[in-house]
Amino acid sequence: MNYIRITNHQTIPVSDIPELDYKSFFELNTGFIIDHPERHCVNYFGYHEDNHIKLICCIADDETHEIYVSSCCTAIQSKLQAFTSKLLCFEKFEREIHENFGLDFIDHPWLKPVRYAFNRADKTKTIANYPFFKIEGEELHEVGVGPIHAGVIEPGHFRFICNGEQILHLEIQLGYQHRGIESLFLKKKSILERATLAENIAGDTVVGHTSAFSYLWESLCGYQASRDMHFSRILALEMERMAIHTGDLSAVCTDIAYQLGSSVYGRLRTPLINFMQEWGGNRLSKGLIRPGRDQFPFTSGLAERIKNIFDAFEPDFNEISDELLKLPSVLSRLERTGVVTPADVQEIGAVGMTARMAGINRDIRTSHPYSLYPELNHEPILKHHGDVYSRVLIRRQEVNQSMAYVRDLLNQLPEQTTTNTELGKPKANSFTLSMIEGWRGEICHCAITNEKGDLVLYKIKDPSFHNWLALALSVRNNEISDFPICNKSFNLSYSGHDL
Amino acid sequence: MFDNLKIVFHQGKQFIPDVTTAKVPGIYRGRPIISGVQVNEAELQGLCPANAIATKPVSIDLGKCTFCGECALRFPEKITFTTDYKISTNERERLIIKEGDEKPVEVNPETVRREIHQVFGRSLKLRQVSAGGDNSCEWELNAAINVQFDMGRFGIEFVASPRHADGIVITGPITENMAEPLRIAYDAVPDPKIIVLVGTDAISGGLFADSPAIDRGFLDQYPVDLYIPGNPAHPLTIINGLLDLTRKKELIRLIHPV
Ligand code: SF4
Fold first, then answer.
1. Which of A118, A286, B110, B230 is most open to solvent, judged by the fewest CB atoms within 10 Å of its CB?
2. Considering CB atoms only, which of A193, A195, A202 is closest to B135?
């Protein structure tokens, strides 16, 4: 076989990944996806190996629950036929490889740098004069926004081409948040250093990224997490989902000037994140999750606290949500605004909530199940219109769903069995892939070790990497004044994307 | 309309009456206390992921600490974190907590620039710039203006344009790619103006201090008026820091006499 099938969180020897010539590599991976809507690319990256570049492509199959991994070695000066010439979902992966290694991809629409990384191949290109798409025309004008935006948010540059008030095209340039995290993963050697790095990838997805790192690291060290560790992680993941969705509902209300919703959702988020602090000492769950450890054992006292918090939260959350979703002035702003069609979502390989809002059932909790999710019998919530309304509905319903899961978990508090052993050295010459369904969607971390068991590659993919293009497509033919609600309804990560 | 009123009624009172004395629930990692107990100092120093611990005598630099809590978990007899969230100050050295220190971290009124008290004592408008922040401090800055913490009641607000601002609030270690936009934003703020650093990343570069992707040259050029530590900084740390800096504590006492 010219590829290897692995499952989520599995470690294999690097030498088990078949190495193909580029033509077969191209045909294999594009062939996997063409006419197979149940498959998508979860990671595609390169790294230096001796004097060449090794490319590794990971395609997830949601029906077989497997990931198909294959590789290819290529010279640094290569010119390669772009996967993107057949499938748009590879567009950004190939841009990233081009940016980092200078590999040329033939028939790629535009090999524009993704984030102007400090270790990019061509240093003459800088973010200050990034190239952008232009349309000439008497009636058209350009609106540039950023990198610093009006609110207290992260930086990114948005360039709109408008016809009057209507947006024809939006180009999003990111990279302003680039801190070189992937390189730091190799440079910093202790588990704690790496775990703290993981929790600083995206401050709104602390649990998501630290869980992805922890499962990866444990698999790499041949360690099996105990039930109490799984319990803490899954509970924290679902709490994070609830907190962010609630906060984002507040943000959507702010942008449609529904002040009551903005205030009520805003204050409803507080008890959820304050609970995380009661449990682990940090409102955003930093410090809570560590490989090989159950850092803050979950007690029955904490279980009581959550129950009480939910009893107060639920009626108020449902009351404001019912009201929000029946106000005509609200609905007129949400419905049919910022539509991305199911075909487009499929084509760009969007993941998580952004896929589910357009009827595409993509949710790692069911497609590549891990930890306690099989016991929770998770059923992804799907919507079909791909508009702001669908995204708002998903968030509302996922809050209720996560609350039910947390209550379920609380019915069976685990015994404390973790002994907090120090994990050994990672296995030598190994490859591990770890996926977690964060609140935005699939987070994928990959690692490769050398003959000494040291990391030679750490690759992080936040769901935003796929989904920013969905935002750009959603605003087409919308009024420019609707950009803020489109943006908030996705709430994508800049730092998770820029790394 | 009636439904909306009902919802308003159901919210009850949400705001924190006195943000200077509010308690944080459960465990919280605020100002640490370092005891005189003898421990293996090299081991203690070596475990810190942020190089925040120095030895002989042991000290913790809150400007570098990511508040991961590991030192306190491993050496509970040596280090404890209190729930004291008032850890903002205008002097960088005050963020270094030494063995035996039990006094609070405070703004030193003597060294605050005169015009800050005179000009910003009753109203302070800030332009926030995220320069490589991971969005956690941005979150907490937004939380500081929500209905519970309600920083707006003290006349402190975030504004969209640097032209309307009295200073900038920087989060993040300052990436190379944000260095120039940050400088442009700062230049656009009219004088007199202040610089506030929020979060460990902004104060020292944090975990990213030795990353080649950051460029902290901006901070060599301009004086910093307030350091607000944390990862992320707690809204109460932010509000108390800003109030201390602009000396509005007196005003709060008038509103909520103790
Ligand atoms: S809490 Fe601060 S000082 Fe202690 S180990 Fe963590 S980063 Fe270092």
1. B110
2. A202
Residue A173 in any domain: the answer is no
Are residues A375 and A286 located together in one domain of the fold? yes
Q: Which of B3, B70, B130 sits opposite A323 (nearest CB)?
A: B3
Query: Is the ipTM of this structure higher than 0.85?
Result: yes
Sheet strands (E) in chain B: 32-34, 53-54, 59-61, 79-81, 96-98, 124-130, 156-158, 167-171, 194-198, 226-228
Residue A461 in tokens: 């993919």
For residue B189, what are its two tokens?
């703020």
Please indicate, yes or no, whether residues A196 and A300 belong to a single structural domain of this protein.
yes
Give A132-179 as a 3 state SS string.
CCCCCCCCEEEEEECCCCCCCCCCCEEEEEEECCEEEEEEEECCCCCC
Contact A180 B180 (CB under 8 A): no
Residue environment code for A127-149, b if the CB has 16+ CB neighbours within 10 A, otherwise e: beeeeeeeeeeeeeeeeeebbbb
Is residue A352 located within the same domain as residue A210?
yes
Give B258's pLDDT tier (boundaries 50, 70, 90).
very low
Q: What's the CATH code of the domain at A70?
A: 3.30.460.80
Interface check for A459 against chain B (CB to CB < 8 A): the answer is no
Q: Which of A114, A144, A162 is the last residue of a domain?
A: A114
pTM to 2 decimal places: 0.93
Which of B87, B89, B53 shows the shortest CA–CA distance to B70?
A: B53
How far does B151 lie from chain A, in Å, by closest CA?
Answer: 14
Q: For chain A, how many structural domains are there in total?
A: 2
CB-CB under 8 Å, A178 with B176: yes
Residue A350: CATH number of its domain: 1.10.645.10
- Whether residue A202 is predicted with pLDDT greater than 80 in this model: the reply is yes
Q: Is residue A174 part of a domain?
A: no
CB atoms A204 and B137 under 8 Å? no
A127 in a domain, yes or no? no
A332 plus A419 within the same structural domain = yes
A151-200 per-position pLDDT tens digit: 888 999 999 999 989 999 999 999 999 999 999 999 998 999 999 999 99
| Domain hosting residue A23, numbered range | 4-114
- Residue B178: which H helix or E strand, with range? helix B176-188
A238 CA from centroid of ligand 1 (Å): 27
**Per the CB < 8 Å rule, is B131 touching A154?**
no
Contacts of A147 in chain B (CB under 8 A): 178, 181
**A209 within 8 A of A202, measured Cβ to Cβ:** yes
Name the DSSP class of A88: G
Atom of ligand 1 nearest to the CA of B61: 3
